[in-house]
Amino acid sequence: MSDSVIVLRHSSGARAEIFKFGTTVKSFFPAQQNDVDILFVSKKAVKDGSRPIRGGIPLVFPVFGAAKGLPNHGFARLSKEWEFELVGEKENRGLSPAIGVFTLHDTEYSRSVWPYKFELKYTIRVYADSLETSLQIHNHSDGKMEFQTLFHTYFACYNVKDNCWVAGLKGISYFDKVHSKEKKEQEDRVCIKEETDRVYADAPNTVLISLNRPTGETHKIVIEKKAFFHEDPPRIVSSDAVLWNPWIDKSKGMSDFSDDEFLKMLCVEVGCVSCPQKLGSKKTFELQQTIRTSLE
Q: What are 236's strand-pairing partners?
């Protein structure tokens, strides 16, 4: 662990690195090929804490996109107040995960831009060939709290134009933010051929991604998601999937992103953003993501 990065190591050889700033997951190296990172971070990403880190898995909370008085995508990914607890690897070495737990509480600043008392508990689990992220949101305010939240995952690829696709979204309605239109997905496999910014509302809980590697091999990635309120029994709610790639023109306007890096990444993001969640006083909401990898 350095001053700026925390490393979670699994006994299989898999590991994940997490920036302390914003608790942004920086990388995940699965055991089957532990020299290949499945996550993308821009070469021009700013890492001095002055702006969000471009890549990895930034946390979106309490808003998705722009909102009056709040930073874009909220303040969680910009916070320097995250506290870290290293849980380590439990019994049954190889089967149990390496675990890191991070917490963030409301501050004077957060309450000045978003008037709620809260606690975020972010748990990251590293297995041999999977990465789990779980965000618990606790409302410590006296009234209801409205929020959006999302894991803004950047996946790495060799060339997004070549044999890269996302499956499992056919028939799902989505909002095309590039063209400001509601559409329905017609393709079994969604390929990236232009600037892409889509919000698939109430997306399936399992999505498959195929990403090419420089070696000619293919990473098959399965994303599983779940969102629920901590009740008895748990109250599961629908959640969304977002596809994003800035493509050529937008990349040129991003100071923390190289002009050609749109070829090297694809964002497949899961969370609750199509409509705000309403969390009662003293209640808890949880968003979970599991990323499973295999190499072909």
A: 228
Q: pTM for the full model?
A: 0.96
Element housing 210 (H / E): strand 206-212
- What is the helix (H) or strand (E) element at residue 112, kind and residue range? helix 108-113
Q: Which long-range contacts (CB under 8 A, 24 or more apart) does 67-74 make?
A: 69/113, 69/114, 70/113, 70/114, 73/150, 73/152, 74/148
Q: Where are the alpha helices (DSSP H) in 176-280?
A: 247-252
Indicate if 269 belongs to the active site.
yes
Catalytic residue among 185, 261, 269, 286: 269
The boundaries of the domain holding residue 88 are 5-295
Mean pLDDT across the chain: 95
Strands 98-105 and 240-245 come out as: unpaired
Cβ–Cβ contacts within 10 Å for residue 123, how many?
A: 19
Q: Which residue has the tokens 């399936």?
A: 204
- Tens of pLDDT, residue by residue over 100-141, are 999 999 999 999 999 999 999 999 999 999 999 999 999 999
Of the residues 10, 73, 138, 152, only one is catalytic, namely: 152
pLDDT at 1 over 60: no
Indicate the number of domains in the chain: 1
Distance (Å, whole) CA 163 – CA 186? 18
Q: At CA 61, angle to CA 57 and CA 65, rounded to 5?
A: 90
On whether the CB atoms of residues 37 and 30 are closer than 8 A, the answer is: no
Report the distance separating Cα 266 and Cα 105, nearest Å: 31
Question: Which backbone phi and psi does 77 adopt, to 5 degrees?
Answer: -75, -5
Q: Which residue from 9, 75, 40 is spatially nearest to 251, judged by alpha carbons?
A: 40
Sign of CA dihedral 5, 139, 273, 75: negative
Compute the distance between CA of residue 246 and CA of residue 233 in angstroms, rounded to an integer: 41
- Kindly report the CATH number assigned to the domain that includes residue 74: 2.70.98.10
